[in-house]
Input
Amino acid sequence: MTVPPRLRRALVRMRRDIAFIAAGMTLHLIPLLLHFWVVVLALGTAFDPDPDTPVVLAFTLPLLFVAGWGLTEPQRWRFRALCGVELPRLRFREVKRQFGYNLLIGPLLVVLELLLLALLLAAVAAALVLVWVWLIPWQWRRDHGGYAVPAGYLTAAGLLALAAVPPLAGGLVRLEILVGRAVLGVSRSDELARRVEDLTESRAGAVDAADAERRRIERDLHDGAQQRLVSLALNLGLAKATLTDLPPEAQQVIDAAHREAKDAIEELNNLVRGLHPAVLDELGLDAALSGLAARAPLPVRLRVDLPADLPQRTAPAVEAVAYFVVSEALTNIAKHAREATRAEVTVTRLGEILRVVIADDGMGGADPSGGSGLKGLAQRVRSVDGTFRMSSPVGGPTMMSVELPCPM
Output
């Protein structure tokens, strides 16, 4: 006979729930029996002191500790294997939650589990009363009449109890899952902390990937397009120097093309340096910033104080952000700082913080919320968990302060 799919699913679910409850009863009975044994020992000591009782109690208390901590992993297996609920692996410092579940909540749940399993056994026994009666010899049944009606009532009650077992078992399983997740699961604060860690790691990976992509673009431009432009400029310069018998119009075209090629090379050099200069990887932040200060269109006083006894160099992503901040700040000073005659850049390493301060003597009035350039700087700084502050009152001076974390 084919079992209907709905009934088959209900039977599978009921079998799973009963197995989950039976496994939980086994695990929850252990601390309950230990509690009972401790109470018996304590009462025995109170009413009939025995010199051996403290020794037995001293051996029993460690068993409570082992049960409170060691039963967590079997509970995790029970939830995962029988209900598909994944509980996190708790660390030892979270032993209070494990003790609370195994030593306090477990003995309370085992009462409900025992009641449900007792109801199941009683329901099965009652539902089979008529079968047992049928198995009794006919002679005995004939001599002892009057049993049919009570047997029928018991069978009907057993069937009703059997019908009530699946929803009761399902409710108890849902209750245990709810309690297990609340006590042994991830708390709201832990979940938020782990989420922050995951987001921090993913953001750090994105920053590293973007930095690696900028380095690749810099290498491609330097080794590809830049070399081609240099070759083009050399050929045009050679043509300009050797082809002196060409008409003036042709010489003017060659001369203009030569100037355009040199301008393109200069712009490409600036673009490459803005992406990720090679000197930053080879010689470090001090040398890269010195190059920026030397190329700036206004006098720049640079001071870089990086202790020589650091265990390791600043992370490449942090150095890239510091270089980008100084480069963009000097560019903005040259373009937008009114009446600025000089700038000052100070880079210091204080423990796990790299502090970059850029100041100018212009007329001030810079507003970080008014343009995309300063917003982009702030976003770039925040991408590595840095802080960006700016002070630019009307009349000057303007000061930009950036602090970048440099974990040891």
